[in-house]
Amino acid sequence: MVDYSKATDLFSPTRLGAIKVSNRIAMAPLTRSRVGDDGVPGDLQATYYAQRAGAGLIVSEATNISAEGRGYAMTPGIWTDEQVAGWRKVTDAVHAAGGKIVNQLWHVGRISHVDLQPNGQLPVAPSAIAAEGKAFTNNGFVDFSTPRALETDEIPRIVSDYAHAAKMAKAAGFDGVEVHSANSYLLDQFIRDSTNRRTDAYGGSIENRTRLTLEVVEAVVGVWGHDRVGIRLSPTTPDAGNTPPDSNVMATYGYLIEKLNNFELAYMHFVEGDTGGSRKTPQGVDLDALRALFTGPYIGNNGYDFELAKSRRGAGLVDMVAFGRPFIGNPDLITRLRYGLALTEAPKEAYYGGGAEGYIDFAATVL
Ligand SMILES: Cc1cc2nc3c(=O)[nH]c(=O)nc-3n(C[C@H](O)[C@H](O)[C@H](O)COP(=O)(O)O)c2cc1C
């Protein structure tokens, strides 16, 4: 049997800030929509994540920081004691299996619907611009609601909701948290001029549009310490309905990354290209040049196969590689990559919703 551990250091330990990881392959965050309306994960999730604990780092599925931050039915939360107890089962199971897991902190902003909001209230966003596309509710797919613009004096509450969720994630036994500032959710909606038309201190200039993300990072670092907080960015992923990314990706995200350096975070995690789609970037955007601005550990993701992972790691372009979809059908992905074993492709119908089927029933290889 081949063993690629001599050909690449992807299977060797490293560290992300204070988080020691057993190899350089991470499991990317994957929403699997198998949680009740209370947002409480349980034994099913504990089994699923423990099966994947061979990853150097697991980034949990995106986890709502508040009732208002929710935009998809059947997704977990991290703001109530019951949710913390549910996640504790998951973190204990992952740790017992020798893995590390961080919690991805999520507020969807305008990517929501009144049916998913407390008391049927309007979702909140930087500006009252509806996203094109459909929200996944308990009643099926419906058009996104037009959000209301957050008042300036509400923004400290948003920041404190992140801090609260970060504290709850700590109580749940995670190894750290990943601030979800990617994929056109609330923080990204503030960053990009296509979705942020504000005229206060949180809109207009790049400095203003990146302010909320930086305030959130500061608050979360205040809870966890800088070396257990990561951040996820997707500078070129179009919004739902294909709203173009920011009109000046290099300047906007370049400024943000330079500011993030001041925190000395555990890591920065990029979706390279269009999340779940092409790795191509718009003309004038060089994601490797943006990445090079970051002074800490870097996790690259999006459309990687083992060849690309080896070559980008070999060229020193990534510290770790995150695989998303391959982890759905291959709980033992690390073993399969290391020994050149065939991968199982999970059916797309299994991605979201349902129970154990298509979730915890993918077999690990017996060597
Ligand atoms: C089923 C599914 C759920 C996802 N859920 C999340 C999520 O919760 N948070 C997030 O940042 N990205 C999410 N993504 C994006 C993945 O983390 C990843 O960026 C994408 O799948 C590309 O990586 P891959 O080519 O290795 O799959 C999801 C993707 C899929 C397919």
Automatic annotation (TrEMBL):
<dbReference type="InterPro" id="IPR045247">
    <property type="entry name" value="Oye-like"/>
</dbReference>
<dbReference type="GO" id="GO:0016628">
    <property type="term" value="F:oxidoreductase activity, acting on the CH-CH group of donors, NAD or NADP as acceptor"/>
</dbReference>
<keyword id="KW-0560">Oxidoreductase</keyword>
<dbReference type="InterPro" id="IPR013785">
    <property type="entry name" value="Aldolase_TIM"/>
</dbReference>
<feature type="domain" description="NADH:flavin oxidoreductase/NADH oxidase N-terminal">
    <location>
        <begin position="9"/>
        <end position="342"/>
    </location>
</feature>
<protein>
    <submittedName>
        <fullName>Alkene reductase</fullName>
    </submittedName>
</protein>
<dbReference type="GO" id="GO:0010181">
    <property type="term" value="F:FMN binding"/>
</dbReference>
<dbReference type="Pfam" id="PF00724">
    <property type="entry name" value="Oxidored_FMN"/>
</dbReference>
<comment type="similarity">
    <text>Belongs to the NADH:flavin oxidoreductase/NADH oxidase family.</text>
</comment>
<dbReference type="InterPro" id="IPR001155">
    <property type="entry name" value="OxRdtase_FMN_N"/>
</dbReference>
<dbReference type="GO" id="GO:0005829">
    <property type="term" value="C:cytosol"/>
</dbReference>
